[in-house]
Design goal:
GO molecular function: ATP binding; ATP hydrolysis activity
Strand content: 15-25%
Distance between the termini: 27 Å
InterPro entries: AAA+_ATPase (IPR003593), ABC_transporter-like_ATP-bd (IPR003439), ABC_transporter-like_CS (IPR017871), ABC_transporter_ATP-bind (IPR050166), P-loop_NTPase (IPR027417)
Radius of gyration: 19 Å
CATH class of the largest domain: Alpha Beta
Keywords: ATP-binding, Nucleotide-binding, Transport
Protein name: NitT/TauT family transport system ATP-binding protein
Number of strands: 10
Bound molecules: adenosine-5'-triphosphate
Structural class: alpha/beta
Order of helices and strands: EEEHEEEHHHHEHEHEEHH
CATH topology of the largest domain: Rossmann fold
CATH architecture of the largest domain: 3-Layer(aba) Sandwich
Organism: Actinoplanes digitatis
CATH superfamily of the largest domain: P-loop containing nucleotide triphosphate hydrolases
Shape: globular
Helix content: 25-40%
Length: 266
């Protein structure tokens, strides 16, 4: 008997209805994340990655299957989860300072003022934004704003952190820095991370596993173990022969997915 999964998704299905049309986005998704794992999800455009994440975050009603966070069924936004979205511009409150943005979920958690201040300071320090605590989000670059969103998630101390293409809107150099930041924070905090990206290189660089999704209606095409050394480095890791092999493998799977290939019996 294995320990309770941090996140368990079993037979998840989601069909959108409305305006007389039905879209079967997700047919049958089953996977689990053990405590402290960092797992990436890739799949063709429209495969249902965002749908999956929104169901897991309790933001979207499912039409079938079960989702458990630390053994508890997810029926609405769960207390132990934090989400970082691609659109940092819309997820931060422009009228609040960086410090207040990071603090907000801690207020909802009912922490004392002193506790909140300590956690906000530590989180801003961990993303290198201590000096920007009193700035407003619109005074910061896109990459800095996304670091605020990460600090807010980290300060909340979630058991599972969901990230939906969080770096898609920042430049390549900033993206590399943010990838390393996520790996560092993940290793230090031991948080379980589910990271959705359309970037194959990013998925292989970040993940301990990469779940490759089929095209719609979605199932898991393959669960790829990323057996790269734990210490990752933008130059050394990305130029390693094993990285190239894994990237080619995942790339090949995505091509198959686009052609409609599905695992047997799906
Ligand atoms: N509110 C909705 N109503 C109807 N269909 C929807 C809705 N939201 C998403 N869909 C459909 O569900 C499918 C999956 O969409 P989703 O956004 O989850 O895919 P994705 O893998 O995140 O795509 P991308 O990689 O392009 O961001 C698509 O066919 C999409 O058109």
């Amino acid at each position: 008997m294995t320990a309770t999964a941090a996140l368990e998704v079993a037979g998840l299905a989601k069909t959108y209805t409305g305006h007389g049309a039905e879209v079967e986005a997700v047919r049958d998704l089953t996977f689990r994340l053990d405590k402290g794992e960092l797992v990436c999800i890739v799949g063709p455009s429209g495969a249902g990655k965002t749908t999956l994440l929104r169901c897991v975050a309790g933001l979207l009603e499912t039409t079938g299957g079960r989702i458990h966070l630390d053994g508890t069924p997810v029926t609405g936004p769960p207390a132990g989860m934090a989400v970082v979205f691609q659109e940092y511009g819309r997820s931060l409150f422009p009228w609040l300072t960086v410090r207040r943005n990071v603090e907000l979920p801690l207020k909802q958690k009912g922490l004392s003022r002193a506790d909140r201040a300590a956690k906000v300071d530590a989180a801003l320090e961990s993303v290198g934004l201590r000096d920007s605590a009193d700035a407003h989000p619109w005074q910061l670059s896109g990459g800095m704003q996304q670091r605020v969103a990460i600090a807010r998630a980290v300060a909340y101390e979630p058991s599972v952190l969901l990230m939906d293409e969080p770096f898609a809107a920042v430049d390549a150099q900033t993206r590399a820095d943010l990838e390393d930041l996520v790996r560092r924070l993940w290793r230090r905090l031991g948080v379980t991370v589910l990271f959705v990206t359309h970037d194959i290189d990013e998925a292989v660089y970040l993940g301990e596993r990469v779940l490759v999704l089929s095209n719609r209606p979605t199932v898991v095409l393959e669960d790829v173990r990323i057996d790269l050394p734990d210490d990752r480095d933008q130059l050394a890791t990305r130029s390693a022969p094993r990285f190239a092999e894994l990237r080619s493998h995942v790339y090949g799977l995505i091509q198959l997915a686009k052609q409609g290939h599905r695992p047997d019996a799906a």
